[in-house]
Design goal:
The chain is α+β, with helices and mostly antiparallel strands and about 280 residues long. The chain has 11 helices and 14 strands. Helix 10 packs antiparallel against helix 11. The chain starts with a strand and ends in a 5-residue tail after the last helix. Bound molecules: flavin-adenine dinucleotide.
């Protein structure tokens, strides 16, 4: 039998996590966690619900960065004025599951599950996000998202860690973001190819690019080779480069989708980068 807790503060929550360690499980929106409990894949002695954690239900902007609290839902994000400026994030978050899922589910839970095909995670990868974590023993840590995942469904979190927020740069003039998600069905399907892009454009040339890939490797990854290649290019040159082939970070594993992914990933990359480019040049409101 599990015991249920509803901590009201971060301190209360990390005290519980410290007390129960690997026997505790945080249930945030519960859209991944409850399935694990129902099927017996997880059998926590202590279920820690985030429903009363008001201090983690806020979205704030500080020093040019957006801070999304560890219990903020996708619905909250989609309604937030600052998030609305981030075209790629709006597409990624708006594509997750269905409205009933987005009412409950959270970005903290998305990175917590560490699925390779996670949408918000892939957009966060292409946003150079940072994950803020706190525990009683180690205090506060900030982990760059490209150092957060170990392998499929495994991240660097320890059982006593609480994600307090996810942080990514706020959109500025000259900056744009894009997200492309290829699926077999239009809705309620796991992405087969996911590409996120955040770029900066000055006088018609790319000055910075952050690219995330999802569903291609064991975890979402950064495509550093693409990022480096894009800097200095014009829109047309960038488009040609994206089309030219599979990024070397797309470590495709043999599956019945390998051929499909080989062909479509460059197209998805081109579309995500062009979408971001258009926003950077003010063509998208
Ligand atoms: C019908 C359906 C459709 C879905 N469609 C999609 C989709 O299209 N794209 C997609 O990416 N995902 C999808 N998902 C998966 C799921 O909704 C997401 O991964 C979601 O972001 C999980 O968030 P949550 O708050 O529900 O996490 P939970 O289920 O509450 O938690 C998930 C994991 O993260 C841990 N965790 C949660 N919060 C914290 C925290 N603050 N600190 C430390 N650990 C924490 C939990 O302990 C657990 O291990 C779908 C799920 C369902 C049921």
């Amino acid at each position: 039998m599990s015991e249920f807790f509803k901590p009201k503060t971060v301190k209360e929550c990390i005290d519980l996590l410290d007390q129960y360690g690997s026997k505790a499980m945080i249930v945030n929106g519960g859209t991944d966690a409850v399935e694990k409990i129902n099927t017996g894949k997880a059998q926590p002695e202590a279920v820690i619900l985030m429903t009363e954690m008001k201090e983690l239900k806020k979205i704030t902007v500080k020093d040019g960065a957006v801070h999304v609290g560890g219990a903020v839902t996708y619905l909250q994000m989609l309604k937030n004025a600052e998030i609305k400026k981030n075209q790629g994030m709006m597409i990624a978050v708006g594509a997750i599951g269905s409205p009933p899922v987005r009412v409950m589910a959270t970005p903290a839970g998305n990175v917590g599950t560490a699925a390779p095909s996670a949408d918000c995670t892939t957009m966060l990868m292409g946003s150079d996000a940072k994950i803020h974590v706190v525990s009683k023993k180690e205090g506060e840590r900030v982990i760059p998202i490209d150092k957060f995942f170990v392998k499929t469904y495994v991240n660097v979190l320890k059982p006593e860690d609480l994600i307090t927020e996810v942080e990514f740069p706020a959109m500025q003039p000259g900056m744009g973001s894009g997200y492309v998600r290829l699926t077999r069905r239009k809705v309620q399907d796991i992405g087969k190819v996911l590409v996120s892009a955040t770029i900066e454009v000055k006088r018609g040339r790319c000055t910075k690019a952050v690219i995330g890939l999802g569903a291609l490797n064991a975890t979402a990854v950064r495509a550093y080779s693409v990022e480096e290649a894009l800097v200095g290019l014009s829109r047309k040159e960038a488009q040609e480069f994206c089309r030219s082939g599979l990024p070397k970070e797309a470590g495709l594993r043999p599956s019945r989708y390998t051929h499909y992914k080989e062909i479509t990933t460059p197209v998805a990359l081109e579309r995500a980068v062009m979408m971001a480019w258009d926003q950077a040049e003010g063509k998208v409101k």
